[in-house]
Each structure stands twice: as C-alpha cells, then as structure tokens.
Sequence to fold (124 residues):
Amino acid sequence: MLTGMARLLVVKTTAGADAPERCSQAFTVASTAAASGVEVSLWLTGESAWFALPGRAAEFTLEHAAPLPDLLEVLLEAGRITLCTQCAARRGIGPDDVIPGIRIAGAAVFVEEIMSENAQALVY
Fold:
C-alpha cells in the first residue's frame, strides 16, 4: 500500500484493439495503482470505449499481458471507470448498454478530476 498524501490518478486511454499495447498499459497501470490503494479514475475514450460494453474485454488478447477482464474487474471494485459522453454517442452506446458501475460523463467532469489538488493524469 502506498503511504503519504492521498492522490488521485486519472488515466485516460484512447487505445483499444487498434493499439493493444497502449491499451493494456493503461489498464495495467490503472489497476495496479487501484490495487495499491491509490484512488484511480480510468477514462475510456476513442476505441477503448468499446470496453464499457459487457463481454468486450474478454475479446481482447495480448501476449504476456494480464487478461483485460481481470484488470477491468479490479477497477470496477477499487476504482472508478468513466466512458466519454461523445465517444459513447459516436458508437451508439447508451447508459443501459454499459457494464454496471461504469458511468458516462463528459469533458467538464474530466477537467474537474485532473485539476483537483492531488490529481496526477496519464494519457495512453
């Protein structure tokens, strides 16, 4: 467990199956931080938006990487996952389509999170 001042790690991923290594890195960093007790907010944007849908993470494979469904589960239990409003709309994804526990929110919420006093942001 990390000690010291509480911090928020905001991870934004634009990569999905189109860039599997970047996608896996984002989920791995976010879930590792969450499992370590860091407050984590993972933002699914661009092609990663598809992972907000049930079963989509199970379709993702990358050699020598942790299974995406396992990382997603860690984040659902110990972190926060947000699907970008515009990214969802462009893909026809609505609130009733996403995995329970995933919220849909827009740029104002993202900016609020990354501008918070103890936030650190990463983009993949």
Observations:
- Residues 8-123 form a domain with the Hypothetical Protein Ychn; Chain: A, fold (CATH 3.40.1260.10).
